[in-house]
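Make up an example, fold above all:
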Amino acid sequence: MNPAVLRQKFESLKSYTRLSEPVVEAMQRRLPEMDDWELNRINPYTFARDCDLDAQESIHAFIHAAKVGMFDFLYNLTCPKCGGIVHAHQELDQIQGESFHCYVCNLYVPTQLDDHVEVAFRIHQSVHTHSIDPLSDLDSYFRYHFSPNFQKSPELLDWIGSTLRGFEVLEPESSYSFGIQLTQEQENGQGHILQVATVDANSGSFFIVDPAAEDPGDELHIELLPSGFVPFEKKVPPGKYIVHVHNRTGRRTGTIYLQPNPEKIVQIAQEHPTNVLPFLTARELLNNQSFRDLFRIQHLSPNLNLNIKSLTILFTDLRGSTEMYDQAGDLIAYRLVQDHFKELTDTVRHNNGAIVKTMGDAIMATFSRPIDGLMAALEMLERLNQLNQRWHEQGYELGLKVGINEGPALAVMTDDRLDYFGQSVNVAARVQGLAGSGEVWITDSVWNHPRVEDLVAKHSLEKEEREATLKGVGKPTRVVRLHA
């Protein structure tokens, strides 16, 4: 590790005075102690747990550290079944497509930012040069290509290990061969499967035993092309085979071959579930105000179109702002509106959200959880009341109207800005339009979320449930009106 460069990065990081001093001090103490594997893929939740720090403050610090060049972002498309990192990207706009395919599990996974895109931080090469060789042995291969946040049970690991038949490293334009007996039935009555896979190139070839299949002879040939293994799937009769694997790419790659039993793996996984540690998701990152502030000029593809299965959307609007402009004049009214924006921005940040955009004197903000959105809304009302106490002296008073909805959405690029699109967004905007001054209106999906009812009771709020007809929504929407 380069101490001079690391020291310079921390000097730059400390210029952000809002960051938690304990988090920055822990980073400065721990980073020089971490080995190459730990520095390769840092989970801020794990870092916070190990150092007894606040998780959200740690996330803010790591994002700022990435801004000063201490870390690179890693966007890992992760299989929820095996924890394999199918694709690892350094830019958000490299994520393309509605799904990705894990060839280890032979499973298509929807590209959802909620839980299938893991965000990690890797030490920048100017600070430290890695010496990890993922092809040095099988343990290194799996450690590099599988997320440490998916902690499989010993029973599942033992079973997976029992299905492995070999690990080989192939140089460009090289080959290897092995012999194997493929029988008609396994213990569960299913035909044997031979699977040859490369995790680093994310490709697989499957030979399925079928007595009715055409006899291919006693040799099977598999070609690894730049586009993946050929054949992808082939049926063969039972028998003894010599399998030849040829690397027709220009890169060194690792391959494994195994005889999996998918049904048995599912059974063991159900009896001994994988423990998934908390990790930073792409949805959380996009709902983080620090990321929005620091990386808003990041170039993203105009074709970016990412799925989020659960997003909490909050809209606000000011009551009385038009009259205030008439009475107070543009200069004073502008200052008061900006004061209100500052309070709302601080509140959104404090409650783990991010402001997507402002529209006149209104905002659109997003959160990863409905409880965070509602907590932000209630804090906004309290802060506006405090502002009104100062504004009363000048003869002005404003009221805040808030609407919140939760549901699926698309993350898209519009006007060089990351935005959200979909009916859930439309519903949130329409629900806000129902609110009066000092009111928060929420949809049924927010109301039914854990802890929301307890929060309403804690603040002694009155609630009124009803059905509302919203413009652009085909059927009546159940909403809840909250007020003091």
Summary: The mean pLDDT is 90.
